[in-house]
Amino acid sequence: MQAALKIIKEQLGKLNEEVAGVSKELTGLGERLRTSPNDSSLLSERERLIKHLTDVTAERKALEVQLGMVAVLCLGSVGAGGESWYCIGGRPWGGGVGGSSTPAVHVASVSKHPNAAAMMRALLRLKRAPEPNTVLKLGPDGRFVLHPMHDALYVRACYRTLFEAVANRTPRKYIITGTPGIGKFIVWEHKTKPGMAFCYKHKAGEVLFGSRYSFDTELSDPSSWYIADGVSPQASGLDNMARIVLITSPKRETYQELAKAGAEMLCMPLWSLDELLSCRSKMYTNVEEGLVKELYQHCGGGVRRTLQIPSEQPDKGVGELVAELQATVDSCSIAQLKAAICALDLAPEASHELLHIVASNKLRNVQLTFASQWVAEEIRKKASREDEMGLDCLVNATSGTRRGMLYEAVMHAVLAKGGSFTVAPVSLGDLERGEEQQHHLPVSKKTELFGDLKTVSGGKCLEKVYYKPSSPSFPVLDSFQCTGDIVNLFLMTVCNSKAMDAAALEDTLIKMGLQAGKTSHVFFVVPPEAYKGFKLKAAKGSWPTGPKQRLAARSKLYILKGVVARLQARAMSVQGSHPAVGVVHRRLGW
């Protein structure tokens, strides 16, 4: 068994090297394509590399699962008297007489599992539950059974809420899901051990291991918990007295039977940036804080891509670490994305990298959003290149947060190209709309990202440059540009109204270093269907402007009709030529 473990590790090492090599090739190819975007040979080579990377990544994932299985077998392959306690093979269900499904017969001994028992003893030694944002350590004698390389667990604030939810008297069946890569951690019946199960007996303080069908007596006890991680609970167990908790990625085939049995669906929240930074400082100190922030802006709130992979591959920079995500965007068609938006649990696994599940504070109400504003922008670029007519349909097919993200990505491209736009001026005092008019915006020759307003403030703000914050959560503005004695500020929204905060606007203009003699024009960019009814409202106690908001008092306000079709028309008119706007990818090193 140890020999098998060594062979798999060697194969995995080779695949990791191959993934790194292909990712590096894709990064270099991306640089060449930015200067020659219509080169057919380069485009063909990119398609080949993307397919190769997808195949190698899938092979690597399969090996990782196999490695987990063999590692578990190595841990417990010797039981009492040297007897082997594991049994692999056979389908959990077989066809019965007349085509009915009946449990398959398993001949497998049930024996004690000392390593799992040690883990439980270490947990029981804790005098009280760990506080949120701290690290749970098992000590020198304890290891997480199916994760033997780890002896510590970061305790998220949501864990207590999650436990309180599944510990309710009713219902007694739960499905816990969430975006893959955020860490849904509990193991008893685990996907790496198909057909097998662990059973912890509290009074005896021991853990038994055997076939999932060996514990029918325990599952008939209403005080028992039946926890399945990544595998469907056995059908015969759905009607037993035990409390059932299924932990799974959003795959309908895994949870559909339990859902039919009346289980309640709960969702694990995404990681916030503060959580990731806290976890980094306690468990992943070899990953730079700045790198975590940059990866979060690209990959979103998943611990796998922001902490785990960078920790295991410390020599890779942002460009190489994001290359796989870029390949995922390139390999997904717009039609696949629209289908995933409608039914993520039926979509290919790659879709989960691009679309994330957002849960409410109570873990119940969920919605889909793009993994990040960067992902939304890359999808917008892809749709503009490959499916211009489908771009408007894609925006309209989305709703809520993801529609706002995609609409913002589209409008950044539209506004940077300049031209004449339909606007409605808004009175600075009472925020009433004026008569509709046409307003001309300048053409920007390039788009530049910034992290701190000070780096592009005052005289550093250049004309013919469209400035975007690198962080999607930048307050007050989504972008700006300078033209003569005017600074244009843009805020994109798909809502029907927006609150005006004089103090926040003043603070932003101060940081921008608005010079004497210059005026700020603030544009609220909204889709056509929201344009006519869109209203600006006074934030409570912070509008109209007062003596302390001298810069905000010099501003002019507009509601701008942002039409997606403008980008489509522009894209079709420049086919076969170079794009008018180039993006400076400072943070990716492109």
Automatic annotation (TrEMBL):
<dbReference type="InterPro" id="IPR052980">
    <property type="entry name" value="Crinkler_effector"/>
</dbReference>
<protein>
    <submittedName>
        <fullName>Uncharacterized protein</fullName>
    </submittedName>
</protein>
